Amino acid sequence: MSSISIIGTGNMARTIGARALAGGNTVEVMGRDQSKADALAKSLGGGATTGDWGTAPAGDIVIVALLYDGVVPVVAQYGDALAGKVVVDISNPFNSTFDGLAHGEETSIAQEVAKVAPADASVVKAFNTVFRHVLEKGRPDVFLAGDSARAKASVGTFVESLGLRPLDVGGLKMAHWLEGAGVVTVGLANNGVGNLDFALGLTELPA
Length: 207
Known about the structure:
This protein has 207 residues and is of the alpha/beta class. 37% of the residues lie in helices and 17% in strands. The chain has helices at residues 11-22, 34-44, 68-78, 109-116, 132-137, 149-161, 175-190, and strands at residues 3-7, 26-30, 49-50, 61-64, 86-89, 122-126, 141-146, 165-168. It has an 8-stranded mixed beta sheet with strand order 3-2-1-4-5-6-7-8, with helices on both faces. Helix 3 runs parallel beside helix 4. The radius of gyration is 16 Å and the shape is globular.
């Protein structure tokens, strides 16, 4: 069982929270609007709790479920409250036409988070290649990137508790390419697949 804090009250926060509780994990919800956080925790049930915005999250794993442009400022605002935590960035920084990344450099939101997070916090990129309703109803692979093997193992254990398969793609610099993979999923949804009912995954050939 993992202890999870979710910063955010939107659809991804709801979906991850529900799957986390179903997997036997504890869930805390934190939102700028306390009434929204309280409402989400109540609707999730399963003993979900709320925390005060900006204070130290109760969970060992802190999932930042915000739009990409809010992730780095919020992590910076939390500051030392995230000391010792595993911080998971799930965001996709799409450009205005959804065919590229909003940042022009070879970086990622997760890498920028690592610059403002406490030195003893560990940042992991995860969940960004999975559409919300697929995460809610399906069994997609979940790609992980991060520099800390311990942090990735913790997130991997959490992902497994959701009935999903974690796949480690390497260090945190790989988060840039996971964000690119997020762009690929949108391209597939708009073109080759034509709908949102899929997720990127890995198929292994038999030995």
